[in-house]
User: Fold these one by one.
Assistant:
Number 1:
Amino acid sequence: MDLSGKRAVVTGGGSGIGLHLARQLANEGAEVTLTGRNEAKLTAAAKAHELFTPFVCDVTDDDRIQELVETLDDKGGCDLLINNAGVFQAFDMTKSFSLEQQLLEVDIDVNGPLRMVHYFLPGMLKRESAIVNVSSGLAFVPLSMSPVYSASKAFLHSWTQSLRAQLKGTSVRVIELMPPLVDTEMVAEMDPSLHRMPPETLADAFMKGLRGSEDEITPGQSGQLKLMRRLAPGFIFGQLNKQPRG
């Protein structure tokens, strides 16, 4: 995909992985709309590139998503939708933990991408475009300390496979980016001894996959988890979940 002049939407684009992906896209000439819930964070992030536009949009808010679609349609439509917004929560289910927080995690991490695709897809089917769902290597092997997050990524992985199959033969390409542990604010409280991929490295891997024919991008440890899930599922689950948790 030649990105020059293309219009991209990146959910959760105010920081972390989303912002690094957005920078790469803008550097290739794409006009990028950064979305998120925090207006101040989006405004600050948008100053990083002249092709960035901030748009406050919560992926749990149907009305606001439809306003976003209308805004992009007024500019000619969306060519690249990156579903990146997500929350990560670690908790012990043997202790008190808010049901409301768990359901919110589902609403953002699972229902968010469903809503975005539901509202954006009709317009994207009219042009050469791409949907990118950012899941995780934990879709292959869950991290027991983050049960809802891990399950949401497994859902997203399965749903993306079905979405890709249904859209085969249309003008919409479906890509899944499956990051390993990435050095972002989201995982700042995890054990510092755990290896973290620099977000710039992840963004480079994404751009390589976007330019090529790779529709399931599994850089670093994510590729290892994918392989070991097939070869020795019990072993890799035990290895992943005996790591220090901080």
Number 2:
Amino acid sequence: MSRFRPAMGWLHNWMGLLLGWLLFAIFVTGSFGYYRHEVTLFMTPELRPLAAATVSQEEASRRAVTWLSANAAKAESWSILLPDEKSPAIRVSWDGETTGEQLLDPRSGAPLDPAPRATGGGDFLYRLHSDLHFVSPMVGRILVTFIGVALLVLLVTGLVTHRNILRNLLRFRPGKGWRTRLDLHNLAGVLGLPFHLFVTLTGLVTVMMLIQPWGVASVYGASGLGAFAQDSFPSVRAQPPRHATAPATLDLAPLIGRAKHMLRSDTAGEIDIEKPGVPGMRVSIAHPIRGIVQFRKPSITFDPIDGTVLGTTNNDLSSVSLMHSQLFGLHVAHFAGPVMRFVLFCLGLVGAAMVATGHLLWAAKRWPKADAKVPHSIAAVDRLNAAVFAGLPLAIATYLWSNRLIPADLAGRAAEEQTAMFAAWGVALVVACIAPARLVWTLLLAAGGLAAAALGGLDLAGQWPVWLIDLILLTGGLALLAAAIRSFRVLPIPPRA
């Protein structure tokens, strides 16, 4: 036992050092994933006036069908997303000889004019959390999965290493160099431990087959994950309609009412229409993604002529499949209301703080006394810490600013927004490498704080602000500015107390 704790401490320190920078980015972008729809609305100001529209789902569905009948009558299938508090426009798409998608004004049923700008919105930050970037999504997801496993190891070894972690949980010693960072690290790690375990385990369950495919491979062979998914989450084949004709005019309102009653929801989710306007036509209405824990939404398929139920999907999952779907739903938290999502967002940032303070603690404990020369390895870690922990907020603020500055009608502007973000992060790395050590943290924190606070303030002065995102930007910007002022008063890492 005398050797066990030091071994766990060594593993905790070095694994945390090597993976912490990427873990920080995963925590921060994952936290914004809880508000990805709000971020998307923030980045599409053309949609904001629609938020004040009060159009029922039944009326919105009529306008969507009218537009599709006039513009995509020969399509093999239609899909309709009705407006809600996260997406105020009607989104219609069609598939067949041609495919397409269009956003409609729910007040008139006409295409939005001006058309909303193309943007990655909050979905880009969400995908960055799960799929990384500059690698294929599958490779990125596998890497994030292994990092999730490493995070579990870090959490367990951290508890083993800090033997007095519970006794000193609320102990805080300001101005004590590495001891101050140890107290902050303990506080962020232990207070957020239930969340850290919960979000890590639920995330790993959703992608467990990526790192443990042997059981599926031994049973399904060449059919692989596709056949396994079909057996685990079977798509119920709906019965064909009993009528040999299609309705002359499709009215979705009665079907929406029945679906809401049967799904026990006050709103309807995605509507899919097979073979619109021809015999064999069927209408499937899904439960909205919010309001349920499970990730796979139940849906009901109707005969559009008399409303007969032809089939259901995801209503009768096995116990194991339902548990998997619910764990996935717990991870992405679509079920969460405003208060719960805010709590989860804050806990995600606590996880990022845990990682950052751990890195600062590692360097602070090895920082020499004031009259000694700083080893190159310690100085390099400190500069990388500044590039990641102060550079990522600047990069995200740049991503949001680029949405305002890049012309709305520019082709490929969504990719340009992403390029601007990573370019800003690259500049932060260059500044961290060449700027005087005393000024590195101050420069990067001040730049990120000014960018975030200015953007939030300007948006609040607009006609249709996205209040929550604006307040996050303002609060985060002011916090970064306060940290920049604090960093200017002290050395990059104070000597050990």
Number 3:
Amino acid sequence: MGLDRDARPLPGRIQIAGVIDRSEADLLVSLGVNMLGFPLGLGDGREDLGVEEASDIIGSLPSSAVAVCITYLHMAEDISDLCQRLHTPWVQLHGKAEAYEVVRLRQMCPGLGIIKSLIVHPVGIGNLANEINIFEPIVDAFITDTFDPETGRSGATGKTHDWRISRKVVESTRRPVILAGGLTATNLADAIAAVRPAAVDAHTGVEGPDGRKDVGTVRPFVQRARQALARAV
């Protein structure tokens, strides 16, 4: 059964991206994380784990946690194949997928929830308004993330962006918006108050020096996210 795209299926969700292995996934779930992001199909060899291992982890997740495939793939067939191999109900598109490819993906996988990334540059909302107009009818949610001009990367940069732009995104669309980009337990409350997103996402901001998520970084993030998201409703 497909998702009701006029509903807001993500309010209050807390996503932690970059799951490394099963023990990390188990830790995140035990601390109350209810969306786990698995970056795959990135095109540059940055994957932390393979498709088969990710599929095994996803298959063992409790009903309280939802798996999200985070990918830079941009062709509908490739995205569909990856998501079916993973058995994930959500995909987060960070690649340059054209609108017609997203339409084809919707036709191929009608029950798949599609999150489209909106990359915030330091120049204002600019082309984001046009992207929202194009993709709003065919996706289930948006995620705003940071462009790093030093590395050219979009996502997992560890850097924040102008939250006023993300706030404009929230005000410009009927779809739920996930806020990402340099979020930590320290800045989370301010970010949520400024943007009023439906959900939040963190990756590098909840990792220790060894690159792993641990109790000391994830627990305060989850606690403060719950409190701030509840106030933002």
Number 4:
Amino acid sequence: MALQIIANQRKGPLPITISFKAPSDGPCCLIVSGSVWSQVANQTIGIQVALDNAHVGTASLFSNATGTHRAVVPTYIPVKLKFGDHQVVLSALPGTVSDINDYFDIVIDY
């Protein structure tokens, strides 16, 4: 198992766009984590993940409180990459807020 860190403690707010070079030509796993918050109680909030302009997954949680930064449950997204340049975009799910107090990590496991 090998890892490539794409973003480490990348400061918000969302959306965040990060370009990277694929370390492998084959199946990989994107691992995404971060923190977000909501202005409305009792809803699912989180991070949408797009790879090369295609939605590939979501890291989310159910938040009971308002105005509290919360860590999303890290998500593991299987993807197939080709050598070369790629782009990951993290954006907020509807009802989700992020700001400069939120941080995000993206790792490729290959």
